[in-house]
Design goal:
The chain is an alpha+beta fold. The protein has helices at 23-34, 40-77, 88-93, 98-109, 118-129, 146-150, 199-203, 209-232, 235-241, 243-251, 295-300, 304-307; strands at residues 4-7, 167-169, 174-182, 188-192, 195-198, 254-264, 271-273, 278-286, 310-317, 320-327, 335-337, 359-364, 370-372, 377-381, 385-395, 410-411, 418-419, 424-427. Strands 1, 3, 6, 8, 9, 10, 12, 13, 15 and 17 form a 10-stranded mixed sheet that branches. The chain has a 3-stranded antiparallel sheet with strand order 2-18-16, with no helix packed on it. The chain has a 3-stranded antiparallel sheet with strand order 7-14-11, with no helix packed on it.
């Protein structure tokens, strides 16, 4: 596979900004207003029409969300965990042109709204999706479109970052769906009870994760073999003649591979921050479907995260491998990177076959890439989606019985928790 190498370096220009119209655009608007064929009727038709469509959309989404929330509450009250169960709707979604529909929806989201209507529309959105408008960095009147409001930045200090060097923090605001440890090559990440997918299929065949998995598996296998061989020897040969061997087999440090899946609903803050200090070495872009990623979709669509369009950032931190998978969803389906603003997702004409090789970019200098600090913005979504973290973290030394291994790294969260950018996902002790 051909890899392109680029040099990317700071400073990064702001990815999302609420800019006024360009001079050329303003001139076109003035010319249009002075044209004899254009009158107030035409302009009045477009803006109220878009505003009415927006209000209707809010009503439909809010009603649908209330219904789904009620169903989830009823299941939780009964102590029932939803299981994977594909249905007709999941099959029907494959027949719809979701990518084209998402691009169209993106265009509607960028329609400039009348200034006097903006606060009412954005407050309606906030009520429907439980957004906190007090955190918005700008007054509501200064967001020209729903898109600008959706990708809004927050006031300084709204997301304090946990400064503990021995912790990973959440890269996004959202709900924790799944988390756990990957044990051995080929292990699976649970999508929902009754269905799982492999980390290899999510991150790609060329991911450095596979080397980390094999190295950990080989190290564990070697230590087990050495322990077995040591048991054959007499006690005095192991403890007196080879004391260093005994220390190495029973007290050797290990690394575990963990994952965490976080879902962002439409009302959440939609920028992605760095979970640790790390070097981003490569980027992988998979052009795929744009299925929805709500709770119903997770329960009914096979390989949801593997089939959807996604951008993978992969690199190294002080404890080893780390990757962030930003997964697109229906409605716009756009993912933006701060370190690569020219990247375009959900492009017209892109193939969506799973067999298609991803577009891969290696950041230079080779082997080092781009350094980002914990809490820095690295990407952003144009609509609700999901982030999957896969990372290495320290695990404890083997116990002297040689049979069990416990982890030093512990998650601070559990499935179902709400978490915000900068809050600890897990910690370990040294």
């Amino acid at each position: 596979m051909m890899r392109r190498r680029f040099r990317v370096g700071p400073p990064w220009s702001p990815l999302f900004s609420s800019r006024p119209c360009s001079h050329s655009h303003q001139r076109r608007r003035r010319l249009h207003a002075s044209s004899p064929n254009s009158g107030p009727r035409q302009g009045n038709f477009i803006l109220p029409g878009a505003t009415a469509a927006t209000i209707v959309m809010f009503g439909i989404l809010h009603a649908r969300r209330m219904y789904q929330d009620q169903k989830v509450v009823e299941m939780k009250e009964k102590g029932i965990e939803p299981e994977f169960s594909p249905d007709f709707k999941a099959s029907f979604l494959r027949l719809l042109p979701l990518r084209s529909m998402s691009r169209l929806w993106g265009s509607l989201m960028e329609v400039e709204l009348p200034v006097f209507m903006r606060p009412a529309i954005y407050k309606s959105w906030a009520r429907a999706f439980h957004s906190n408008l007090q955190e918005a960095a700008l007054p509501l009147e200064e967001y020209p479109s729903l898109q600008a409001f959706f990708i809004r930045s927050l006031k300084e200090g709204s997301r304090p970052i946990d400064a503990d060097p021995n912790c990973l923090v959440s890269p996004v605001d959202g709900k924790v769906l799944r988390l756990g440890e990957l044990r051995g090559p080929g292990t699976m990440i649970e999508q929902v009870k009754g269905f799982s997918y492999s980390a290899a299929s999510l991150l790609g065949a060329s991911s450095s994760l596979h080397g980390a998995e094999e190295e950990d598996f080989s190290r564990e296998h070697t230590e087990q073999s050495i322990r077995a061989d040591s048991n054959v020897k007499s006690w005095w040969r192991v403890s007196v003649a080879s004391p260093k061997l005994r220390d190495q087999t029973l007290l050797s440090p290990k690394k575990g591979i963990f994952y965490c899946v976080i879902y962002l609903n439409p009302g959440d803050y939609h920028r992605v921050h760095s979970p640790v200090d790390w070097h981003i070495i490569k980027r992988r872009h998979f052009s795929g479907h744009l299925f929805p990623q709500n709770e119903r979709a997770v329960r009914t669509i096979r390989n949801l995260y593997v089939e959807n369009e996604r951008v993978i950032l992969e690199g190294q931190w002080k404890e080893g491998f780390v990757a962030l998978a930003a997964i697109g969803a229906t409605s716009v389906g756009s993912i933006k990177l701060f370190i690569e603003p020219e990247l375009r997702t959900n492009r017209a004409g892109s193939k969506i076959l799973n067999s298609q090789r991803p577009d891969e970019r290696v950041y230079e200098p080779a082997g080092t890439g781009v350094m980002v600090k914990k809490g820095e913005e690295v990407a952003g979504f144009r609509m609700g989606s999901t982030v999957v973290m896969v990372f290495e973290a320290p695990v404890s030394k083997a116990r002297e019985d040689g049979r069990s291994v416990t982890t030093d790294f512990d998650f601070c969260i559990k499935a179902g928790d709400r978490i915000r950018v900068g809050e600890a996902i897990g910690r370990w002790s040294e």
